[in-house]
Amino acid sequence: MAGFRTFLKSGHSPTLLAAFIYFTYCCGVWVSNGAMAPFIKESLGLTPAQVGLMLSIPIFAGALMRFPLGVLAQYIGRKNATLVEMTGIAVALMYGYFVVETFNDLLAMGVLLGIAGASFGVALSLGSGSFPAHYKGLAMGLVGAGNVGTSVAAILAPQLAQWWGWKTVYGIAALGLLVPIVVMVALAREPDDVDKHASLREHMACLFEKDGWAFSTIYAVTFGGFIGLITFLPSYYYDQFGVSKVQAGQLTMLAAFMGAALRVLGGWISDRWGGINTLTAVLVVVGLSLLACGFTQHSLVLTTLLMLLCFAALGAGNGALFQLVPLRWPASTAVAGSMIGEIGALGGGLVPNAMGLSKQYLDTYLWGFALFATLALLTLLMMRWMQLRWTRTWAEKGGRARAAGPVAAQPTGATATPHFR
Predict the structure, then answer these.
(1) Calpha distance 421→419 (Å, rounded)
(2) How many H helices and E strands in the chain?
C-alpha cells in the first residue's frame, strides 16, 4: 500500500482517475452492439455472417480513427481532444436512438460507434503523461483497466435491452456521457511530457520503423483479440450453448472483467519483470487456450474456464505492451500509442468476421479459433527475434526500463527524418 501511495504521489493522480473514467465509458459504448447482438439479430433476422460484419464495423472504424485523434491531441492537447471526441460520441448515440431501423442503418451506426473506440492512445497517454518512466507501465495499466467498460456493457446492455428495447440503450448511454465529461473538465490537467515544438514528421517517425509494425502486430493479438472476442462472445454463448440473452451477457462480463483487471497486473509485472518476458508468457497462453476452445464447444463450463484464462493473458499482454511503448517513443507516446492502437486493433475486426464465416460455411467455430491461435504463436516467434535488438538499444534485458533513460532509438532532433530500419 505504501508503494502504491508513492506511485500516486509521483504523478498527477486526478488526471489518472479522469482518464480511467473516460476510457471506461468509451470502451462500454464501443462494444454496445456486441453486447446487444442477440437482440439485434432476432429483431432484424440476421445471418451469422451478417452478425460478424455488424460486430466488426465498430472495431475497424475505431481503429482507423485512433491515429488521427492521437495527432490532434499532440496539437490541441490530450484533454481537449477527449472533449472533442465525446462530443462526437453524443452525436453517434443520438443517431442510434432516433435513426437506426435497418441493417444498413446498423452498419452506419457501427462506423459512428468507432468514435468511442478512438479513445485508447489519448487516454493512456493523458493518464500516464505526468508519471516517471519507471511507473508508466503501472499508470498505463490502471488507465487501460478502463477496458472494464466492456464488462459493464456486457452486463447492463442486455438487461436494459430486455426491459426497454435495444435502441433505447443508445439513449441511456447518451445521458451517461455527462459523467466522463464533468470528470474530465473538473479533474484532468494536460501533462507536460510532449515536445510541442516537434514537427508532425518527427511525431510520425514510428510509422517508418519496423518496431512500430512489430508492436502493432503484437497488439493485434492482445487487444485485437480482447475486443474482437468480447464483441463476439454474447452471440457465441447464445447460439452455441442456448443460454438466454441476459445470461450470455453475464458470461461475457466475466471474461471482460478478467481481461480488464489483469491489464493492471500486466503493467505492474512488466515494470519489474520486463514487458518482453511478460508478452512471451502471454502469447503462449493465448495460443494454447484458444486452440483448446475450438475443441470444447460441447461444454459450457470448459469453454468459460478457458475463456477466463485466455482473457487473463490478453489483459496482461495489453498492459505489458504499453509498458514498452513510452520506453521506445518517450517524446511522442500519444501518437505512437495511437498508431499502434489503430493498426493493432484492426486485428480485432477480423475475429467476429472469421467466427461468423466459419460457422456459416463450415458449420463450426473451430477454424475461427484455430486461425487466431496460429496468429498468436507466429507473433511470439516474431517478437523473440525482434527483442534481440530491442535489448541492445532502448530496453534492459527482458524489456525493463533502462536506469539511465532510453537510448536514442528514435529521431528527436530538429534535423531528424523518419527512416526505415
Answers:
(1) 7
(2) 19, 0
In sequence order, which ranges of 190-244 are alpha helices (DSSP H)?
A: 200-203, 210-241
Residue carrying C-alpha cell 491461435 = 373
- Cα–Cα nearest to 332, from 75, 19, 10, 120: 75
Residue 133 carries which DSSP code?
G
Domains delineated in the chain:
13-190+202-393 (1.20.1250.20)
pLDDT digits (tens, 9 = 90+) for 248-289: 999 999 999 998 888 878 878 888 899 999 999 999 999 999
**CB of 87 within 8 A of CB of 33?**
no
| Euclidean distance between CA atoms 360 and 104, whole angstroms | 20
Q: How many CA atoms lie within 13 A of 277 on its CB side?
A: 15
Residue 375 to residue 125: CA distance in whole angstroms: 28
Q: Name the pTM for this structure.
A: 0.82
Cell numbers given for 291: 486452440
User: Is the distance from CB of 399 to CB of 319 less than 8 angstroms?
Assistant: no
